Fold this protein.
Amino acid sequence: PHDQVAQGPTTDSHCPYCALQCAQRLGGHPVAAEPRDFPTNRGGLCQKGWTSADLLRAPDRLTQPLRRTADGLVPTTWDDALDDIAARVRALRADHGPDAVAVFGGGGLTNEKAYQLGKFARLALRTRLVDYNGRFCMASAAAAANRSLGVDRGLPFPLTDLDDADAVLLLGSNLADTMPPSVQHLAGPRARGGLVVVDPRRSATARLCDDGAGTHLQPLPGTDLVLLLGLLHVVLGEGLADVTYLDERVDGVEDVRRSVAAWWPERVETVTGVPAGQLRSVAHRLADASPHRGGRGAYVLTGRGAEQHVDGTDTVSAAISLALALGLPGAHRGGYGALTGQGNGQGGREHGQKADQLPGYRSIEDPADRAHVAAVWGVDPELLPRSGVPAVQLLSSLGTESGPRGLFVHGSNVVVSAPRAGGVRDRLASLDLLVVCDVVPSETALLADYVLPVTQWAEEEGTMTSLEGRVLRRRRHVDPPAHVRDELWIWSELARRLDAPGTWSTDASLVFDELARASAGGRADYAGLSHARLDTGEALHWPCPDPDHPGTPRLFTNRFATPSGRARMVPVRPVGPDDDVHAEAPLHLVTGRLLAHYQSGAQTRRVPALCDAAGGPHVELHPSLAARLGLDGAELVRVTSARGSMVAPARITRDVRPDTVFVPFHFAGDSLVNALTNDATDPVSGMPEFKVCAVRVERVADD
Ligand code: SF4
């Protein structure tokens, strides 16, 4: 570990991990993180946040550039690495055109880096092929929010609004494990028996419903959409809807009413397994909590469990329609929101890393949007490439006849986190040039031709945008190791070597100012924000169009962000899982998270206390399945899908359904569960169907 030089006795910043972005104070020697009071975490941190400073001392921290030779990865100098990378990019472009090189970004990058990476791809590499790992976690919720509400901001209200609600419907979110300090905002609804958790597994969040605090609905995996259609059927059919609100603010109501007519609760029960009486009772509970019936408020929230399906966008559309039917979005005490997962999953999707978007949620195909951003960048709009392809399509095309021959990866460990991960690994290995920027030698970095060591959270300046659209300052507390560089410096050096037009600042504050100008007038408007303003202690929700604007904690209070100002209910039809169970693979596989780990585990698997808490994977299976397999403890089992298999110890529990197994996805090697998951995607958003596929489970022979 390098000798860390602190910038001062203490520094106020935020946690490096999830989108709750709990407030931290960094200080001491060795550096440690303590909680600070902030509305979302109220002085709390989870185990990951408390131990986050251990990341600075990771024993295998990357501290100098590496290049691949016949002897493997060996140290090199920055000049040699950057000169050779630029030369190889030029050669690939000369031989195969600008789309010969692609870019894969991450939802953990600061806003400044997310912005600069999109600009680097389009102006320096001149490729249209840029997308990021947020496509795996937020794409369907974003697409549904855009088509119904006109804009995608995960929570269009402060998280603290939940405190006073009578009811919260949580679909496919295990926030008690993923962001534990957020659970305190459910105290009010739980005290009034109004928490409703929809999850095929009895997760830590589902257990919050115990003792009269709420209701856990445990549907068959892949049937969330049917369940939502059933709730809509009851709300629209039993006089529970807010008809005044629907008349004044919503289009498409009659289309949706017709589309849910056939989903009466008894029919829904036959598909989902959720008792019809329970469904009716939840619909009435939500309606009674809604402002139009005199309740204190109701919220409908989705997480990845509901969103990561081939009908993910339609599932979220149904959730939004339910919220609209109850008169919630834009109401003083109610709303629909998606619980963003990655640390900067919100900002990461606003500033131009997405294949089809420019900064400020601008469209890369819209002439006015292209002209605005090109003017900020100081280039001719004709120079900007057109739309690229979503992440799964991008990864699938790598190394193919017509696909890219080179790839830059920033802030993502796709070999572990992508669906059908075995195929992704093979395709990365077949490339002519793979450049990975990372903090540690992740499984993806170990395949690279060049590994470039970059700064991590407590070593860099920038901003993050939390799950409630609030822009926060990330601050440097310690100097990075001597040969580690900020990505802004790397892109500036490569841009110069590639003769890219435009300016390439390495100062995060100046990059933010440029980002703010590029976003001005867009749907995610940061024009009134700056590092200087945020440093006064403000943490403001966008849109914030001018320096005197107080930010916008609550959206849609007067109008929706659609051209007409009215929300749109969208009729949808369930399609079911792409890879459904059959005789050879009779069980549903559901994947998810553990409290002690974050995403691919590249960071948290290097923190000793987190490994002590959860050192490895397991396969949760029901006692009845365990009995059929002859298991009575933690014997090794093999889980196999049409795409691959993995091995891990069994964990016998009644928390899963008899027809379902659950595996956490933070682990690699023989326990890589994404080797099994399905890369079929939602046609609207490009979201892959991580959350359900068909598997068989076998006991691994003792010998
Ligand atoms: Fe908070 Fe998330 Fe960090 Fe835990 S991981 S401390 S919930 S920001």
Remarks:
- Residues 15, 17-18, 20-22, 41, 45-46, 48-49, 179-181 surround iron/sulfur cluster (CB under 6 Å).
- Residues 240 and 441 are 55 Å apart (CA to CA).
- The chain is about 30% helix and 15% strand.
